[in-house]
Amino acid sequence: xxxxxxxxxxxxxxxxxxxxxxxxxxxxxxxxxxxxxxxxxxxxxxxxxxxxxxxxxxxxxxxxxxxxxxxxxxxxxxxxxxxxxxxxxxxxxxxxxxxxxxxxxxxxxxxxxxxxxxxxxxxxxxxxxxxxxxxxxxxxxxxxxxxxxxxxxxxxxxxxxxxxxx
Length: 166
Description:
Helices cover about 50% and strands about 25% of the residues. The protein is an alpha+beta fold. It has two domains: about 1-65, MYOD Basic-Helix-Loop-Helix Domain, subunit B; about 80-165, Alpha-Beta Plaits (2-Layer Sandwich). It has a four-stranded antiparallel sheet.
């Protein structure tokens, strides 16, 4: 039992050593890519990295045209679902935007949500940056759904997409 405890302790110590080595490697990378860093302790360096990322996000937001917030396919920091209607050759097409944490099952969940409201994707754009994902889908509802009020169809699609984030 004593030998087993020692082996477990050694294994834990080795895993912890590898974790510290990875962290220190990433800290060294941050030091090399951040401009004009005066303080080099880890807390100051991480604070500067956060400040710089926020500054870059703000600059990217300012580049976005004000008339179309989805012109750039950059995921935002907040979760959101937006559904608006667009006319396309006389047919009702809904533009659905979903922004959330990235995860491996997101495409499967999107497919399942669209199938639940009997929607067909006619165009899709997706980007993933920094653990966040943004999907913009243009979907058509089936013929039976088109007879339903447009607001009800948009509402059902919005609910199905919100279910993905929960």
